[in-house]
Write a structure and sequence with these properties.
Layout (H helix, E strand, L loop, with lengths): L2 E6 L3 E4 L2 E4 L16 E7 L2 E6 H20 L11
Antiparallel strand pairs: 1-2, 1-4, 2-3, 4-5
The structure holds zinc ion (ZN).
Zinc ion binds next to strand 5 and helix 1.
């Protein structure tokens, strides 16, 4: 599994079971550039990216919508889908 570390501004880092208090911790989001309260940093073979909760929510929404659109067919316009 990819490494996920949570950085909490002015508090420290949490990676799995390990908690590292560090008052100098900054939680800068790579997605929106904001200095957030906290970011989740996911690292993989191609590097790492830190995202705040608003950007993570945006990612989840984008995944949900993308899956939906492939299921529904890309030619169906929004608003004309009936449940
Ligand atoms: Zn963000």
């Amino acid at each position: 599994m990819a490494g996920i570390e949570v950085r909490v501004a002015r508090q420290g880092n949490v990676a799995g079971d390990s908690l590292t208090p560090d008052p100098a911790t900054e939680a800068r989001c790579d997605g929106c550039g904001a200095a957030a309260d906290a970011v989740a940093r996911a690292s993989g073979p191609e590097g790492a990216v830190s995202l705040c909760s608003a950007c993570l929510r945006g990612c989840l929404e984008a995944i949900t919508i993308a899956r939906y659109r492939f299921r529904a067919g890309v030619s169906i316009p929004w608003g004309k889908v009936t449940g």
